[in-house]
């Protein structure tokens, strides 16, 4: 639609409009142009994205035109239009329809989804993330044939569905020959998923650059009026140009050059245009209202509308001569988007509504509905009903952002408060499912004002609490959910059950484990007479609360029973849909806390496989972090790859708590491997986004810093962090030591800093927890502490044997190596070097294989001190340790037998990206075939 062009071989300089290419390079902006030049120069090898941010008139569009004009390859261009933002996938269609021949290169599921959302095929509910992956695949395929530049102006007015696709693509262009350059106003797209896209903020022009721009328009320093223009413009180039034009016109007519109104407060650009509008004939100003009101720049529609108003296109001649409108290639549009509110603001309300009614009469489908909505002077159920129907249709197309906007406008026009509340809830649901939890929370609050039905109020409260949880405010979420549950319990027990169940997770996140257990118990009581899924969900949440809050054996038994009850979670429950997958993930996460990781892993594998297969990654971050918790005990590289992907998806969806937990898990691995700087940087990121808001995670963050300090050989700092973490855990009621893998580190740090009594107290706590929970790790950790505290060599050897028995009950190689290292150190201290050598050598091998370099160095030094005379074979970490997390994910997918196309679909990447990663994988591993890769990944334990 609006100004999309496909140009091959570059664009010659052809004008000075906002979206047009410039005859001269933009004045100033040397740094910005250097960045853009660098992006274009590298385009034959790699791609990237850049977001230009600045106030209206600062030159964003000029820079886009400069970039397109300099490019010597294919250029795709589109521009958001405020009035079209309600129409789903408008800009995506503009960009991708010229590339339709490349649709054939997509996997069938992605192609169907993409064609469905673009109305090229009749597809019910095309998956939005299959659309995102398909769009990336099309652009990548086109870029493979010829490098591709995509230019998008006014991103803040791009329809939300297209914006989601652009955001997805912008983060994944490193290996493609595609450059994406976008312009946006300040304050838009700054947080969440866009935070990782490189952004350049355009500030005011320097004074010398202002004079350079004025000289291009015939003014110089000798002109007394020019100095005033520079001061009035405040460095805004568009203001300078508009004022220079206004000055020239006034001088040409002999009018007074200045009056005091030019100094009045307000946007300078709008004031300049108001003056131009006032100078136009009345007939032209009346016609311009139609141009501003049109939700599409279609010239045919505008011609019909003007004819219905008793005029024709000739009425726009004066506006076209002054450059306020452009008519070409079948479209008519205003020179700059800022003109739209200026034009509409200068006409009467009656005139504006009349124009919208005429446009509605000449339009059909969604456009007609939105014109009718704009023409409604107040509540109108007929129009609200049409908007609701359009929202349902958009929801079926999975254009959730467009559906949410339609529901919200329908609510605004609803005469009945009950209808308004219901439609606001629907708007909030689509916003929430579409990844905009902030809008969902705000609209739920609006809905509560209108709702008088306790059941509807409960449904609104449920979604509101879920949105607050996603937004990283678990304390408020828990309070809202519990209050809503108590309010509806007398009239609707099943709804109260849902609310209590939803309140358990934020209570855990907020560190209120005892309260979470009480709420989970109440949820289970109410679920006894509910439907099967609700009953199971309540039972799972109760069991998880028990596993965290101290009654581990009871929680473990309940979780295992729930797993058995489903008979085959992989074949049955997980395949049913998101609700059952959520239950399966909750069961698996609970089992990871009760020494049942082997039972949890296949459930999580199946959930992850299903979400990838269905191209529905909304649950991926949760499932990947669940598997990361399991793998953290035994397979660090798999855990790191899962945490890194979980972080990407959590950021994609704005899941603050998930992002924070992923950062902590990655930081823990960094710290244990000896990369203290990376560990601290990740924890700093966590604290910036989440610190103080997620008490449950704050404890993990302090524990991570403590473990990293001990790894770095700083027991004093370690003890400071871990004592704080221990106090936090105690305050929360967390007594499951499986979630506190740093407790033995606290005992070691205490002993190394001379606080033997504190080390004994920590060891006793572990002993009590091992007895109460029957878990393997606290038993092994207690035995390790007793080795450290041993008074004789024999006592150390006896406790080492006890520890080895405990370690044999669960796969935890790092913890076992830590125990063996401590035992070797103690035995050598008691002058038993020959007895120390075996555990020290075993520890060294394990640390090296895991990539825990500082621990391997410590073991190596102890081996040498123990007098080991035979040359120690320098074991090397697995070659897969050389892979980045994403390379590892690609290698694992290919190692499991997926083709490149299947791996691309599963990992939401393009085929070109898969091939690029695979090339690096082959080089790093020194292999040449897929069968070699499968063997290598199997040897590393990454595939079955």
What does this structure look like?
It is a single chain. It is built from 46 helices and 8 strands. The chain is mainly alpha-helical and 944 residues long. Among the domains are: 196 residues, Rossmann fold; 72 residues; 94 residues, Orthogonal Bundle (Arc Repressor Mutant, subunit A); 101 residues, no CATH class; 60 residues, Winged helix-like DNA-binding domain superfamily/Winged helix DNA-binding domain (Arc Repressor Mutant, subunit A). The strands form 2 sheets. The chain has a 6-stranded mixed beta sheet with strand order 1-3-4-5-2-6, sandwiched between helices. α6 links the parallel β4 and β5. α30 runs parallel beside α32. The radius of gyration is 32 Å and the shape is globular. The two termini are 50 Å apart. It comes from Streptomyces avermitilis.
% residues in beta strands = under 5%
Q: Could you give the distance between the termini?
A: 50 Å
Number of β-strand runs: 8
Structural class call reads: mainly alpha
Q: Write out the strand line-up for the largest beta sheet, numbering strands in chain order.
A: 1-3-4-5-2-6
CATH fold descriptor of the domain at 6-201:
Rossmann fold
Please bin the fraction of helical residues. 55-70%
Q: Rough shape?
A: globular
Q: Give the C-alpha Rg.
A: 32 Å
Most strands sheet: 6 strands, mixed
The CATH architecture of the domain at 6-201 comes to 3-Layer(aba) Sandwich
- At the first level of CATH, the class of the domain at 6-201 is Alpha Beta
Overall mean pLDDT score?
86
CATH superfamily of the domain at 6-201: P-loop containing nucleotide triphosphate hydrolases
Number of helices: 46
* Low-pLDDT regions: 1-22, 259-266, 567-573
């Amino acid at each position: 639609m609006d100004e999309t062009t496909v140009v091959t071989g570059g664009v010659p300089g052809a004008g000075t409009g906002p979206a047009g290419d410039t005859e001269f390079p933009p004045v100033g902006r040397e740094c910005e142009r250097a960045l853009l030049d660098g992006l274009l120069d590298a385009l034959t090898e790699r791609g990237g994205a850049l977001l230009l941010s600045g106030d209206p008139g600062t030159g964003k569009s000029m820079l886009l035109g400069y970039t397109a004009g300099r490019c010597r390859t294919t250029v795709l261009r589109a521009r958001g239009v405020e009035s079209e933002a309600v129409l789903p996938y408008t800009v995506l269609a503009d960009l991708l329809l010229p590339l339709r021949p490349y649709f054939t290169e997509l996997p069938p599921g992605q192609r169907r989804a993409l064609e469905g959302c673009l109305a090229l095929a009749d597809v019910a509910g095309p998956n939005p993330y299959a659309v995102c992956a398909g769009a990336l695949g099309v652009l990548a395929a086109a870029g493979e044939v010829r490098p591709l530049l995509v230019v998008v102006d006014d991103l803040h007015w791009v329809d939300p569905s297209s914006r989601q696709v652009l955001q997805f693509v912008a983060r994944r262009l490193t290996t493609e020959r595609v450059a994406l350059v976008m312009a946006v106003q300040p304050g838009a797209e700054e947080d969440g998923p866009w935070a990782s896209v490189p952004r350049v903020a355009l500030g005011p022009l320097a004074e010398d650059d202002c004079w350079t721009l004025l000289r291009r328009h015939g003014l110089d320093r000798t002109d007394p009026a020019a100095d005033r223009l520079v001061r009035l413009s405040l460095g805004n180039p568009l203001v300078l140009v508009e004022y220079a034009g206004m000055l020239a016109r006034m001088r040409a007519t002999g009018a007074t050059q200045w009056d005091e109104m030019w100094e009045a407060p307000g946007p300078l650009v709008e004031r300049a245009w108001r003056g131009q509008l006032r100078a136009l004939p009345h007939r032209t100003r009346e016609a311009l209202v139609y141009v501003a009101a049109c939700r599409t720049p279609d010239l045919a529609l505008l011609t019909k509308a003007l004819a219905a108003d008793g005029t024709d296109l000739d009425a726009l001649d004066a506006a076209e001569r002054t450059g306020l409108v452009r008519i070409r290639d079948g479209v008519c549009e205003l020179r700059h988007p800022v003109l739209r509110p200026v034009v509409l603001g200068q006409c009467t309300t009656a005139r504006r509504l009349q124009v919208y009614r005429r446009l509605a009469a000449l339009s059909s489908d969604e456009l007609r509905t939105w014109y009718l909505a704009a023409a409604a002077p107040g509540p109108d159920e007929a129009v609200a009903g049409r908007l609701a129907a359009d929202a349902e249709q958009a929801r079926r197309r999975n254009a959730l952002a467009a559906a949410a906007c339609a529901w919200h406008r329908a609510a605004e026009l609803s005469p009945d408060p009950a209808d308004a509340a219901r439609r606001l809830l629907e708007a909030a649901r689509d916003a929430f499912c579409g990844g905009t939890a902030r809008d969902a929370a705000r609209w739920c609050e609006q809905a509560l004002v209108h709702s008088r039905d306790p059941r509807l109020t409960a449904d609104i409260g449920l979604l509101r609490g879920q949105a607050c949880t996603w937004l990283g405010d678990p304390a408020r979420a828990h309070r809202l959910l519990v209050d809503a549950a108590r309010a509806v319990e007398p009239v609707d027990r099943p709804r109260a059950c849902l609310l209590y169940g939803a309140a358990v997770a934020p209570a855990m996140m907020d560190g209120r484990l005892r309260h979470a257990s009480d709420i989970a118990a109440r949820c289970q009581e109410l679920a006894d007479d509910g439907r099967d899924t609700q009953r199971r969900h309540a039972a799972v949440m109760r069991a998880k609360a028990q596993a965290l809050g101290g009654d581990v054996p009871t929680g473990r038994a309940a979780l295992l029973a729930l797993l058995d009850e489903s008979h085959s979670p992989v074949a049955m429950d997980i395949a049913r849909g998101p609700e059952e997958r959520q239950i399966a993930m909750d069961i698996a996460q609970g089992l990871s806390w009760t020494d049942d990781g082997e039972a949890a892993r296949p459930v999580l594998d199946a959930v992850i496989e299903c979400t990838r297969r269905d191209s529905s990654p909304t649950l991926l971050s949760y499932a990947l972090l669940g598997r990361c918790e399991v793998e953290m005990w035994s397979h660090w590289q798999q855990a790191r790859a899962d945490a890194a992907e979980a972080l990407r998806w959590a950021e994609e969806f704005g899941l603050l708590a998930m992002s924070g937990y992923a950062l902590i898990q990655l930081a823990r691995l960094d710290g244990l491997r000896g990369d203290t700087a990376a560990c601290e940087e990740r924890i700093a990121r966590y604290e910036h986004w989440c610190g103080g808001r997620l008490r449950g995670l704050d404890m993990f963050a302090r524990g991570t810093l403590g473990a990293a300090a001990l790894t770095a050989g700083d027991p004093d700092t370690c003890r400071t962090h871990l004592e704080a973490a221990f106090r936090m855990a105690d305050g929360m009621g967390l007594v499951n030591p499986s979630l506190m893998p740093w407790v033995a580190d606290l005992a070691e740090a205490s002993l190394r800093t001379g606080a033997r009594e504190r080390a004994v107290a920590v060891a006793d706590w572990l002993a009590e927890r091992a007895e109460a929970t029957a878990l393997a790790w606290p038993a092994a950790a207690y035995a390790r502490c007793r080795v450290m505290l041993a008074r004789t060599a024999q006592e150390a050897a006896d406790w080492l044997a006890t520890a080895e028995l405990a370690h044999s009950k669960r796969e935890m190689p790092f913890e076992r190596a830590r125990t063996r290292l401590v035992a070797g150190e103690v035995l050598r201290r008691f002058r038993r070097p020959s007895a120390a050598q075996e555990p020290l050598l075993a520890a060294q091998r394990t640390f090296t294989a895991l990539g825990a370099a500082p621990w391997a160095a410590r073991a190596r030094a102890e081996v040498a001190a123990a007098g080991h005379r035979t040359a120690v074979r320098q074991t090397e970490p697995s070659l897969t340790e050389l892979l980045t997390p994403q390379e590892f994910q690609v290698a694992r997918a290919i190692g499991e037998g997926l083709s490149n196309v299947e791996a691309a679909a599963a990992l939401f990447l393009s085929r070109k990206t898969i091939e690029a990663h695979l090339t690096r994988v082959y080089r790093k591993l020194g292999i040449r075939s897929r069968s070699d890769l499968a063997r290598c990944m199997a040897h590393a334990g990454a595939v079955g």
